[in-house]
Amino acid sequence: MKQSIQLRLGQHLTMTPQLQQAIRLLQLSTLELRSEVQQVLESNPLLETVEESETATDNAYSEWDGQGNAGQANGPGQEPESAGGNGEAGQEAAGPNDTTEDLYSGSGLDDVYGSVSSGAASGDGQDDRPYEARGSTSPNLQEHLLWQVSMSPFSDTDAVVATAIIDSINDDGYLSTSLEDIWHGLGLEEAVELDEIEAVLHRIQHFHPIGVGARNLRECLLIQLTQLDPQTPWLAQATLIVKDYLHLLGGRDYTQLMRRTRLSRPDLQQVVALIQSLDPRPGSAVTNAQPEYIIPDVIVRKARGEWRVELNPDAIPRLRINSQYAGLIRDSQNSQDVAYLKNHLQEARWFIKSLRSRHETLLKVAKCIVDHQRDFLEQGEEAMKALVLHDVAKIVGMHESTISRVTTQKYMYTPRGIFELKYFLSSHVSTASGGECSSTAIRALIKKLVAGEDPVKPLSDSKIAQILAKQGINVARRTIAKYREALSIPPSNERKQLA
Questions:
Q1: What is the percent of the chain with per-residue pLDDT over 90, rounded to a whole number?
Q2: Helices 30-43 and 335-372: crossing angle, nearest 10°?
Q3: pLDDT digit string (tens) for 179-198?
Q4: CATH of domain 428-495
Q5: Where in the chain are the domains?
Q6: Which residues are paired to 63 by β-bridges?
Q7: pLDDT, tens digit (0-9, with 9 covering 90-100), for 378-395
Q8: CA atoms of 93 and 80, how far apart (whole Å)
Q9: Where are the beta strands (DSSP E) in 237-337?
């Protein structure tokens, strides 16, 4: 084979470190972004937060005008820089081509970024968690039951058995392991009989919450019924139904129940109401789960008849270049120190640019969504229009993967509530008139129809499909079933009520 040198001209995308950083920041949620900012602050001495008191006096402070433009009160002779060119992440956070004087200066658009914020990266050492979450370390179900064991007159052997049983109780309060397995697992076959294991279980089942440790739903409900006042109306009939006819009650076969129990419809209603007052998941009454708060990234409000979109200032970290450390680059005589500071200075500016690119892209996509979904903001879910990633990407001039990153785990505050940006993206179904109807709007219509149905004769999936067809929306029965399950609405036979 003869070797030769050939010149080829082509194009390809190079994933520079700053572009990789911009893409990574783009897909982070607000809480993840705060954690990332805190890590960068701890590792880069050239980057610092801007205190809220300094906002009014900082001449190099960059703030958002609500239209996607980063404004700045520039010093004399300073020119604002752009946020970068377009790339897969929407706008590539290209590294600055700094001169020596630029490195010395601690001011400039690349050096300061953010808005008034109470973010986690404040660096003041204060506990920024919500007030309700501070010091609220409630015990879980196992700890709650073990505490009751310590307060009960158990022998040492029974306490060991009780601990093993409690360890086998799941979060709903049910025993997830058979007594035989617990008995063999303890290795006390010669010292303890299986009947003693069951006796300990019966004692635990009367701990708080009542019914915990039950092996099935029937046993759980019966335990709770035995704790009621014997004079409770319809107690005997409720016990009979739970003991012998729970399967009929679960299937809402009220005709068979009235025939088997010889109860009239009004009397059966009273019995069912008593059973429904019981707790089928007693373990859920004791939980140490902390509430999770959603911080919206975008705020939408109506002003002077127009819908305005702006970034949530509390979700934007307030960062700037430390001017004191930046000044050391010029004053230091140690070449190693200068190289160290220059490297961190460039990384800090890249990070600030990436943050700005992230929020500009987020605001641009949010404005596109609001412009398309004005009817939803005005009228509700039923007026939601079909919108997919391709549509948004085409309007804002970005790649679909970028839109997917922007709309994942990013939330929008609207007068109708807080929604993930992905909520506004939905496929369409063709209508009889040749138009399109959003799948979100169809789900809202299904929810409305089910809410207004006759509880004695609930609407079947086929009937819902027929009603929608009369409104010009052609949806198959299987599609109705899929949307209904997505809304956690049970089938018609499980929605049937006595009255």
A1: 50
A2: 170
A3: 999 988 888 777 788 899 99
A4: 1.10.10.60
A5: 28-72+83-118+310-355, 141-285, 298-308+361-420, 428-495
A6: 71
A7: 998 888 998 989 999 999
A8: 15
A9: 298-303, 306-311, 319-321
